[in-house]
Amino acid sequence: MNHAVVMAGGSGTRFWPESRAKRAKQFLNLTGHGTMIAETIRRFAPLVPPGNIWVVAGEKDREHLSPAALGIPPENLLLEPEGRNTAPAVALAAAAIRLKDPEAVVVASPADHAIADLKEFRAILRRALRLTRESGCFVTLGIPPTHPATGYGYIERGQPYGDPKTGAFRVRRFAEKPDAATARRFLRSGRFDWNSGLFLFRLPEFRQRLRAHLPDVHAAFESAFRQAGKPGFQAAIRKAYRAIPSVSVDHGLLEHEPEILVVPAAVGWNDIGTWRSLHEFLGHGESGNVLFGNVIATDCRNVLVRSDRGVVAVLGMEDVVVVRSGDAVLVCPRNRSEEVKGIVDQVKGKYPELA
Amino acid sequence: MNHAVVMAGGSGTRFWPESRAKRAKQFLNLTGHGTMIAETIRRFAPLVPPGNIWVVAGEKDREHLSPAALGIPPENLLLEPEGRNTAPAVALAAAAIRLKDPEAVVVASPADHAIADLKEFRAILRRALRLTRESGCFVTLGIPPTHPATGYGYIERGQPYGDPKTGAFRVRRFAEKPDAATARRFLRSGRFDWNSGLFLFRLPEFRQRLRAHLPDVHAAFESAFRQAGKPGFQAAIRKAYRAIPSVSVDHGLLEHEPEILVVPAAVGWNDIGTWRSLHEFLGHGESGNVLFGNVIATDCRNVLVRSDRGVVAVLGMEDVVVVRSGDAVLVCPRNRSEEVKGIVDQVKGKYPELA
To answer: Are residues A151 and A248 in the same domain?
Structure first.
């Protein structure tokens, strides 16, 4: 059967003041359609039964994680005592899935990306799930680049793979985030996709690779899962994490694979990395304004204004982001929203309870 | 003896969100040196004993008015049940002063203006008090204009009056707020000052003019003050106000005077009508930034940022006003802060508790 693993362990400050040390981006309702983690789960719903959707998140985020609200069984929420990058997160879910469905086909996905074309995404995912089941390969979803981004990793396509209807290619190589010139070259070549962080695998192959390439991780979870379903289980998980290195799936597993497949997916993917990219993703009418909550915007253009309480009144502004969340307010030009991290550092120093 | 009447009955919305329907400008600490009403009182302190300083304010503002905090005796706080413009406000104070000091020399002043050069103000006020005592005339302070303002009334100077050291002139005429062309003409002529709203008089002459020109007001207070010091006094004041017309000192009294004097006062006077004028009044260093409260401003120029709680972080902005007060936030360009009134109308409609 199909399973989905939603990796919700990330943290980040780029959406301050909505994101905070204790409220990461995946728990924000940025688009107005629910939290990003809830949207991610909904995205898989028609192809993966709710009982087969697994969430791996941090213990620190427990307060934001209600299995009932997310529509998953309580035991499908897996809590990491601390983040160890993606390989342990997926391995943790894989160990849990194995107890239920040793032959599972699994799609793993970050919890903090947005996808505009849900219909196309589901069509492509359906093909990718079948491809994974039939090939036994790791399959990644690549995003056809729309501009020479320097903030993403890239995947170079090689030869087409199998039935052309599947739209799959062999992966020639993974490239780290490039510099600007390299990114332009990648874009011009037409052979590169962005690495979406979405990938698929068959459980037996995943376990076999884990045992081969990350034996510490494999052994730690083998041991911990002997307690599965028992009262000491979470304590066993905590113990396992003390022995586990921090390592990504890309580096820990994929770089040893002789054959990885990529399916280009033009699905309006956006990692929504900054307030500006949220503004761009959401689209907007003639005014270019995107307003959430109790907001009064008079004679404004291309503004993103959000307020979770009270009222935020914006008059005569253009190309700015104004966000009020709790007791914190941010005002900056749209095109400088990537500098919010620096603001958060200052807030940490002066008003730690608001960082 | 010298007495001062501080007219604090005004209301206004131009400093929203700090000013609200229930918190007028004179009760705001705009400059960082205390509320405007407290600053106004302090301004008179060396020339007028605290027991001779009278505050006329609205009953609606009672919560903002602590005689102890203002440094005046409780009986010097006079509450109008509703505003009736300046003539009744001053007449009310005059009636109270008469019980204590029938030969008083009185300076009357709005409570919501700022004066930068306190030393010069006091020197001029000292001369103006003496001039009033000796001449028996109404004396106004005129502000030498620095630009062709259309938001103020003007006073045209006639011939010099008396001892040149006093710096006084006869008033040729009062002019209402002019249009732009007229204002430029006024400025060019060199004969016009702004009407500061500050004026002086001797109590006997004031009472005589009041009886002659505003007999209703005179009679109403004559009757009410028979209850002075008794339990029914405030009720008597309320009754008086029901019979009293709304009328300014300028129209109700001064326009009947054959001889009024004006003393030009280059004292850095500013009526601080908008957030922009506050920014200009406060002056600022090289950055042009004026910051109050918990504010983080990074790479900003010419911004006015104020916060009464939490934190307001402003990154990379120029020439804007950002004010957070209670549950309301305002963001606008500095040069559009006079349009805040329109915002307040919208707030009234949608979030009346925040207007």
So the answer is: yes
pLDDT in tens, A49-84: 999 999 999 999 999 999 999 999 999 999 999 999
Same-domain check for residues A227 and A346: no
ipTM: 0.89
**Pick from A212, A236, A270: which residue ends a domain?**
A270
Q: Do A261 and A304 fall within a single domain?
A: no
Please say whether the beta carbons of B230 and B147 come within 8 A: no
Per DSSP, the three-state class of B104 is coil
Amino acid at A34: G
User: In this complex, do A347 and B311 lie within 8 Å of one another by their Cβ atoms?
Assistant: yes
The model's pLDDT over A216-240, given as tens digits with 9 standing for 90+, comes to 999 999 999 999 989 999 999 999 9
**Is the CB of A347 less than 8 angstroms away from the CB of B296?**
yes
- Considering the domain architecture, whether residues A109 and A130 belong to the same structural domain is answered as yes
The domain that holds A189 is classified in CATH as: 3.90.550.10
- A53 vs A49: CA distance, rounded Å: 7
Residue in chain A lying closest to B299 (CA): A332
In this complex, the residue of B311, B315, B342 whose CB is nearest that of residue A336 is B315
- Cβ of A315 and B332 within 8 Å? yes
Cα separation, A241 vs B218, whole angstroms:
87
- Are the CB atoms for B138 and B260 separated by under 8 Å? yes
Identify the residue whose tokens are 């009418």: A285
Domain of B279 in residue numbering reads as: 275-354
CB contact under 8 A, B354 and A311: yes
pLDDT of residue A208 exceeding 90, the answer is: yes
Tell me the shortest Cα–Cα distance from A297 to chain B, in angstroms. Answer: 9
Domain count, chain A: 2
pTM of the predicted model, to two decimals? 0.90
Do A118 and A203 belong together in one domain?
yes
Q: Supply B296's token pair.
A: 């983080």
Coil, strand, or helix at residue B105? Answer: strand
- Summarised one tens digit per residue, pLDDT across range B15-57 is 999 999 889 999 999 999 999 999 999 999 889 999 999 999 9
Whether A159 and A100 share a structural domain: yes
Residues A206 and A345 in one domain: no
